[in-house]
Amino acid sequence: MTFLVSKNKQFQIVDIKKELRNISTLPALQNSLDEAEKNGQLAFHDFTDTEIMKWFLHRRKYLIERNERSEKTVREYERELLLFIRQILEHAIEIDVDVDYIIEGSLFKSLQSRHLRRYQEWLSTESPYVVSKGPYSPATLERKTTIIKAFFVFLHKVGYIQQPIHEGLRIASVRKDDRPNRDLGPIDVITILDTFKDINHPIMFGIVHVLTTTGMRNEEFCRLQVKDLKIDVIQGGYYLDVLGKGNKRRHIPLKDKVVTSIRQFRIARGLPIIEHAQLDTPLFTTNSGRAFSPSYLSQYVSKQIMGTIQLKLSDQSLKITPHVFRHAFAIISKLNGVDIYDIMRSLGHEKIETTMIYLEKIFEKERHAIHAWKSDQFGEYI
Fold first, then answer.
1. Where in the chain is the domain with CATH 1.10.443.10?
2. What is the mean pLDDT of each run of 10 residues along the chain (382 residues)?
């Protein structure tokens, strides 16, 4: 399957998403590459645009399959690339995609650096989303740019396109001041927990208690099943066997009071006690007995904290989502003297730079020059 292009530059995409998800053809694509190698031909010489996209999204890089990109990541890349294709075709005139002719029936081979730059500029200033809802956040533009760049870097690296046209993309890095405030310290967390305890709300108390003391991602929390709550036969107590990004697992120890919160959550939901529950059922559920979805959990947490509880926080403008409690875990750990590399590993971060983002305001305050001032030099005023 390829992109259909006519001489008047009217583009049409035929059922690309369906074909991209038809992974049954991956062995045939691998055989095609093997034959090209055997016959001394260029790799991907007979691939279509859709096939090269499919290979980019689903190709195997690791011997052990669970180390590959997660399904969520694949879907995110697929969504952004399909949006890029659709927009650059439907809005070719506004973007000024001045392609004189199509090379080998391929859209990707016909694009040049200026087209990616113009698309990026149009996306951030004139695209339908911007016109109707306002500018994308810097983080969203960075994510979109990262995905598009990764794809065209791949196309050039494997020789599907001849020029490094990804160099036409402008840097879309996020400055510190552009990041939304997600800092939540121990005083605010205790305020939230105390409030839900006082109004006898074991559901929200349990969610906040677990998220804050484990540092789990929203998706990780929603995926938990009863079997993931395990007895620690070595050190005693319980831990959570969590499936994280990149299908990597980590073991998160639980304090006894957190286990109690989990049990009280399940009692409030009318769920079987842990010891009698089916192992493959959700550990946490909505009131309908189903596992939370990440979007629903985020909406539920925000709605429950909005209003009276929000007004009790030190920063009343802070939007409380499950991810905020992940930041709280990092901040509280740092305030308790935990080494930053241990915090990184506990959060499941791949890079220390990501953890530093969580803690940059803490480090900024800790390293401020005022802490070096001596009281004998400034008298009673410090």
1. 186-366
2. 39 71 92 93 91 93 72 90 92 90 88 95 92 88 94 95 93 65 86 95 97 96 96 93 87 96 97 95 96 94 89 85 94 93 94 88 84 76 67
Residue 124, SS3 per DSSP: helix
Predicted confidence at residue 7, as pLDDT, reads 38
Residues with Cβ within 8 Å of 193's Cβ and at least 6 positions away in sequence, in order, are 205, 208, 209
Block residue for tokens 């306002």 = 134
Cβ(189)–Cβ(208) below 8 Å:
yes
Q: Is the domain defined by 186-366 classed in CATH 3.30.565.10?
A: no
- What letter does residue 134 receive in the DSSP assignment? -
Contact 283, 229 (CB under 8 A): yes
CA 166 to chain CA centroid, Å, is 23
How much is the pTM? 0.69
- Report how far residue 135's alpha carbon sits from residue 35's, in angstroms, rounded to the nearest whole number: 47
Structure-derived torsion over alpha carbons of residues 124, 126, 128, 133, reported in degrees to the nearest 10? 70
Phi and psi, residue 111, nearest 5°: -80, 155
In the DSSP assignment, the letter for residue 275 is G
Asked if 212 contacts 333 with a C-beta cutoff of 8 angstroms, the reply is no
Phi, psi of 252 (to 5 degrees): -110, 110
CA atoms within 13 A on the CB side of 281: 14
Find tokens 């996209």 and name the residue: 53
